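Project standup — Tuesday

K.O.: blocked on the structure for the chain from last sprint. Re-posting the sequence here as requested.
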Amino acid sequence: MDKALLDVFVEHYNKVDRAQNQWKPHVYTTAVKNVIEKCEMKITKENIISRSKTFDKYHAIIRKMLSQSGFGWDWDNNKISVDSDDVWNTYVQANKDAASYRHKTIKFWNMISLVYSKDRANGAGARTAAESAAERLRRMVTTARTLTLPHPLKSMEIERRKGIDQMTLLLPCFGEKLDNFIAAFQADVCEPSLKLASPEEILAALDAIPGLGEDDGLATYDILVSNDRKFKSLQALPDGMKKKWILKQVNP
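H.V.: unblocked you, prediction finished:
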């Protein structure tokens, strides 16, 4: 049953089908249907909710243990591994709710640890990485502006505030420079590119040059269609110099 239930939870976890601290209604419906089909047993939404709370409890207790030195996860036997009895006894003295977990088998820990992790926001309360980073920055700035220290460190407070004040003064400058950079970048990207000469324009210019042979004209045409700058150079020359310039390009 647990595998059939967790399969549904993992699928909908990846779809962010959660609202606040519980699953969206259709997830429970899907879970009930999947357990009935896979396990051929009667089950209700209330049973699903109850089992989900049990998984959540497992996760909270085991995750706390795994965050401590001396604890690990035994993937072969699906249970906690402990470096020594002393480590365990010391931990249990301060965490009575973990007493029964030393030899407790918890299958599908990889799925439980994924679905019940509180590190990932979901549902209506989800935040993007950018929003989270912006919030952290706002907190840092607020903390810096309201920083106070105990009286014995008053002199250090003054020096620290000087640094903060200097940083605060510089922030508008950085913002202005960033705005200027963005404006310049947009102008460079959005500015329409210069119009290139068309093949018809190049042919017309070559035909207008007296005494230009067909072979030299074709060779020059091949050069000019791939190098607009040379075509502009040709156009800038006096008519009497154009043929000589072309012959130098064809026969350097």
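K.O.: great, moving the ticket to review. The CA atoms of residues 149 and 157 lie 6 Å apart. Residues 154-190 form the longest helix (37 residues).
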